[in-house]
Structure formats: structure tokens, C-alpha cells
Design a protein that fits this description.
By secondary structure, this protein is α+β, with helices and mostly antiparallel strands. The chain is built from two helices and six strands, in the order αββββββα. It has one domain.
Length: 129
């Protein structure tokens, strides 16, 4: 066999074996448990079903989605609405026309903390001063 071909094949095999031995890069971590991303302490908090024809179910309400809708996943990346597969806990923000403008998909830990923060804000605003 030609020594050049042998060297090339050896180099290819070595690089394949080396890449197989190298661990895959870890996904960036979502927010640490007990920490809610900035500005997420404001509700409303709901379970959102995947969007369909410009609308989505938020808890018991069906709301129109804004043309400028941004959906952020648990790692705060913007995702396309059609990538959502099932009902997920979210915080959302409405625009001035009552359409959903921003959606933040929450981890279970974030959903718990957000729920506690929202309840705390409600109780503080209801408390007599």
C-alpha cells in the first residue's frame, strides 16, 4: 500500500477515535434552582399549550399571539412557536392590544419560585398600609 494513503487513513481513523473518546459538550445550564430569570416575578403564570393558528391556550384562556411574539425556552433562547410539543409552565406578557407578546418557558423549579413571588406580590399589594 502507498505510504501516503496509509498515513491519510491512519490520520482519519485517529481523529474519529479521538472524537469518539471526547465527551460531548454539556448543554448550558438552565437557571439554578430557586432563581427566577429577571423580570419573571411578574405574572401571569399559566400552563401553555402549543400555539395553533395564531392562538394558544393559557390556563383556561385562549389568547391571540402577537405578530412580534417571542418565546424563550428554559435556557433563555428564543424558539419558534412550532417547536413547542406539549403543555408547559410559562410566564407571559400581554401587549397593549391584549395579545401575547412575550412567553418564558419555565423549569419546574422556576415555576414554583415564580408562583411564590407572584403570591407574595399579591399579598403585599392587598395588605392595608
Amino acid at each position: 500500500m502507498n505510504p501516503i494513503v496509509s498515513a491519510i487513513l491512519s490520520s482519519i481513523i485517529d481523529s474519529i477515535l479521538e472524537s469518539a473518546m471526547t465527551p460531548a459538550p454539556a448543554l448550558p445550564p438552565s437557571a439554578p434552582p430557586g432563581v427566577v430569570r429577571p423580570a419573571l416575578g411578574q405574572g401571569p403564570l399559566a400552563m401553555m399549550t402549543p400555539p395553533n393558528n395564531g392562538f394558544a391556550q393559557f390556563g383556561n384562556e385562549t389568547l391571540r399571539l402577537s405578530a412580534s411574539l417571542q418565546i424563550r425556552d428554559t435556557q433563555n433562547r428564543i424558539v419558534m412557536p412550532m417547536t413547542m410539543q406539549g403543555a408547559v409552565p410559562v410566564l407571559y406578557k400581554l401587549d397593549e392590544y391584549g395579545s401575547v407578546q412575550r412567553v418564558w418557558v419555565l423549569t419546574p423549579e422556576e415555576a414554583e419560585v415564580a408562583d411564590q413571588l407572584i403570591k407574595q406580590k399579591k399579598s403585599e399589594s392587598a395588605a392595608p398600609k
